[in-house]
Structures are given as structure tokens and as C-alpha cells.
Amino acid sequence: xxxxxxxxxxxxxxxxxxxxxxxxxxxxxxxxxxxxxxxxxxxxxxxxxxxxxxxxxxxxxxxxxxxxxxxx
Length: 72
Description:
The longest helix has 9 residues, at 2-10. The chain has a 3-stranded parallel sheet with strand order 1-2-3. The chain is globular, with a radius of gyration of 14 Å. Helices cover 36% and strands 14% of the residues. It has helices spanning 2-10, 24-29, 59-62, 65-71, and strands at 15-18, 33-36, 47-48. It has 4 helices and 3 strands, in the order αβαββαα. With 72 residues, the protein is α/β, with parallel strands linked by helices.
């Protein structure tokens, strides 16, 4: 069973949704993929829910769900 868990964990991407840019070093240290949501400005190292087809303008009402919509 442990070998199966290890294979799954190696193929797992973890995302960390943040409202501002100041946690980038910590997120990257944890080896998570940084995701910026909200009206703040983020560096190019962040995935943003405001790219492509999105509802990021509704972030103040729906919070991180705007990222889930964008990701889906």
C-alpha cells in the first residue's frame, strides 16, 4: 500500500491560493504552485484567476471559487 501512496503523491500538484504577493517564498518552499486571486498585483511567478475565460471580477463575492471556476 505504501508504494501506491508514493506513486500517487509524486504525481500530485498542490496549489496555494493567496490574496497577496507577500507569501511567495513560503509557498514555493513548500513546493506548492502559487495562485493569486483578488485585486492585488502579483509577479509573473503566480498563476492568476484573471487569465483567459474567468470571473475574477466577482472575487469579492466568491473568494477562491473564482480560481476554481478558472481552473475547471
